[in-house]
Amino acid sequence: MKKTSLENWIFKKIGSRDIEDYQLRKLKENINYVKNNSRFYKEQLRYINENDINSFEDFEKVPFTTAEDIKDNPLRFLCVSQQYISRIVSLNTSGTTGKSKRIFFTEEDQELTIDFFKEGMKDIVNSNDRVLILLPGEISGSVGDLLKKALSRINVESYIQGPIKDVKKVSNIIKLKNINSLVGIPVQVLSLSRKEKEVFSNSIEKVLLSTDYVPNALIEELTDSGNCKVFTHYGMTEMGLGGGVECESLKGYHLREADLYFEVVSPTTGRKVKDGEYGEIVFTTLTRKGMPLIRYRTGDKGRFSAKACDCGTVLRTMDRILGRIENKVEIYDGNFLNMRDIDENLIKIKEIMNYEVSVMDNSKSQIYNKKEGKLYNYRENNIEEKSELVITAYVSKENFEVVKDEIVRNLNQIPVISKSIKKGILEIKILLPDREKESGNGTLKRRIYDYRREYEG
């Protein structure tokens, strides 16, 4: 098995094999840089000096940065004049309204991402491969555009198609361009493999999945669809799009440690957890100039592996992410339903192309809010009343009743659902629209929508 190419790349970038010494030095430098150039961090870190950071334990005393901090006033994070910003990305939280996060990048910042993509893709494709990029790429500096530039540097031919809107069109491109590798959004690639089974199994040898949590059931099906190897990538816009990617062992991500310092902390206490224990992923940028972030809480659930990777690298390995910590809803008495549990059980149903999940109020009482001009369900206790778990499933065949029954059976494999049904506080409702939904929600992360709300007059 080939060792991850990221190892030599990182050692070359940092000028030594001592990653910890490099990262600690860069953390100190960054504290000084942001305090001198960012209005936000000048205030946030007013009691912290670079000379106070002499160990990683010292760094844990530095306050966290949150998504809300960025939403409040993203311009306060800037460390350079706006004339040097070459790319601005606005991020809206799925299913909500209000302020969006705006992330700023200089041309130099984007070059760092291209360099990481180039090195990470070396473990996945080579000059004999032809890659179809099923991510946004029409705008200069978008993720698909940066990936294409990275692939060109290792002499790999690639084509940007964007998120899948027409499965048949993508299938024709795969045949026309002799595509053997895909980079795309998990649920969209799964839908493609199910609708175009022959093309997928005969053509696709390598898949890189990104932008959202990747269920194990999805990886297993794509792997079994033919001679296909499935890699996963972890990243987010705030990281500069790239964070970590799997090597040939396919057991977790090797991280972009020359550009990012990662921690895993308890979501409740904020204290660092041991390797092998799950917590919230936190990162600090080490080399970004336009909008550095210090101890940014991602909201993602993950852990560092307690074992060395089979590829033999000395780099740390982060196990595959388990999705968003907040992507759950309370059903009763502190018992939560997680999106990943639904994914692992429903993705096994091969007739389903995509689905949406929501929890509704099953109360019959309603009240009209004159100020808003809306009718709301009213419940004295927002959770203990009966709720309705609504699954809107987009399926590929007409035998809807059979699919409905299978969905219900699979959902009952989830303990919190089966217990809630027995308690009489949860009902399952399956909706099967006439149309098929191929494109999902674009690059938005999938989530459970909780439409229960207590009336506020």
TrEMBL record:
Q: Which residues form the AMP-dependent synthetase/ligase domain?
A: 93-283
Gene3D superfamilies under this entry? N-terminal domain of ligase-like
User: So which domain of life are we looking at?
Assistant: Bacteria
Q: What is the species listed in this Swiss-Prot or TrEMBL entry?
A: Clostridium tanneri
Record's protein name: AMP-binding protein
Which Pfam families does this UniProt record tie to the protein? AMP-binding
InterPro entries per record: AMP-dep_synth/lig_dom, ANL_N_sf, CapK_Type1_Caps_Biosynth
